[in-house]
């Protein structure tokens, strides 16, 4: 019993080798975690350094480009041109510039107002001259008074109606093109009977005079023939190309577009020639009627000179209004927007 009591009954003691292995494994695991943390920190620092280097390089490149641009001379900016539409759908575009300054509006309104006043004033002056100084009108029964129809009707046809027809293209651009062309044709059509009756009146007054007066001998009559011929040619070509050919608009668009500058140029030439013919006719009539009294400048001579200056002013204003590029391009949308 005593021998069994003295035998060891407590738990067995751990050997020193086992404690050493445990401490070694714990040390290895802690050192491995430290190395991994150190490697992760190094990688993060390397990434930050690379990003900082890239940002520095980008800043240097931006500074270099700004310095190069500052040293380069600045060239004037060339105006860009809008692409032209295709030939199949080529239409005039008035939407490029929609606003005008006060100076542009003043110029346009001044030119149009003066042109309208002078167009009406020319007809009023010639009527006043014929009715007040020349005794009015008559037909075959009085060849002298029948002649008075000639200056009135020629100025009404070649100057007033034709001038309004030309001016209509600058005032009526807010309307559809077909309406502008229609009114343009109507004003020219009104001029046709005036020219025809005025021509018959001067022929009758010469043939029925006692003694008869020779026809077609003066510079005025020759210029009148050329003016009437150009006017008739313009009317026929314009009516044919811009109204009749509209029934097949797409097929004739190119042909009609090629006629536009020709028609416009010969229209201005015809009007200028009509003004010159009227001036020669007034000079001829003044010399034949007043004779030596013309040098003393009586009232009738003053009226005739004023009428001649009105015709000269119309020649300047209408050509300016028709050929002015600003009036030709911008006025359509501006007027339509205001209305």
UniProtKB/TrEMBL annotation:
<feature type="domain" description="Cytochrome b561">
    <location>
        <begin position="114"/>
        <end position="323"/>
    </location>
</feature>
<feature type="transmembrane region" description="Helical">
    <location>
        <begin position="302"/>
        <end position="322"/>
    </location>
</feature>
<feature type="transmembrane region" description="Helical">
    <location>
        <begin position="152"/>
        <end position="170"/>
    </location>
</feature>
<dbReference type="InterPro" id="IPR043205">
    <property type="entry name" value="CYB561/CYBRD1-like"/>
</dbReference>
<keyword id="KW-0479">Metal-binding</keyword>
<keyword id="KW-1133">Transmembrane helix</keyword>
<dbReference type="GO" id="GO:0046872">
    <property type="term" value="F:metal ion binding"/>
</dbReference>
<protein>
    <submittedName>
        <fullName>Cytochrome b reductase 1 isoform X2</fullName>
    </submittedName>
</protein>
<feature type="transmembrane region" description="Helical">
    <location>
        <begin position="108"/>
        <end position="132"/>
    </location>
</feature>
<keyword id="KW-0813">Transport</keyword>
<dbReference type="GO" id="GO:0016020">
    <property type="term" value="C:membrane"/>
</dbReference>
<keyword id="KW-0812">Transmembrane</keyword>
<dbReference type="Pfam" id="PF03188">
    <property type="entry name" value="Cytochrom_B561"/>
</dbReference>
<keyword id="KW-0408">Iron</keyword>
<feature type="region of interest" description="Disordered">
    <location>
        <begin position="1"/>
        <end position="93"/>
    </location>
</feature>
<keyword id="KW-0472">Membrane</keyword>
<keyword id="KW-0349">Heme</keyword>
<dbReference type="GO" id="GO:0016491">
    <property type="term" value="F:oxidoreductase activity"/>
</dbReference>
<feature type="transmembrane region" description="Helical">
    <location>
        <begin position="259"/>
        <end position="282"/>
    </location>
</feature>
<feature type="compositionally biased region" description="Low complexity">
    <location>
        <begin position="1"/>
        <end position="16"/>
    </location>
</feature>
<feature type="transmembrane region" description="Helical">
    <location>
        <begin position="222"/>
        <end position="247"/>
    </location>
</feature>
<feature type="compositionally biased region" description="Low complexity">
    <location>
        <begin position="28"/>
        <end position="83"/>
    </location>
</feature>
<dbReference type="InterPro" id="IPR006593">
    <property type="entry name" value="Cyt_b561/ferric_Rdtase_TM"/>
</dbReference>
<feature type="transmembrane region" description="Helical">
    <location>
        <begin position="182"/>
        <end position="202"/>
    </location>
</feature>
<keyword id="KW-0249">Electron transport</keyword>
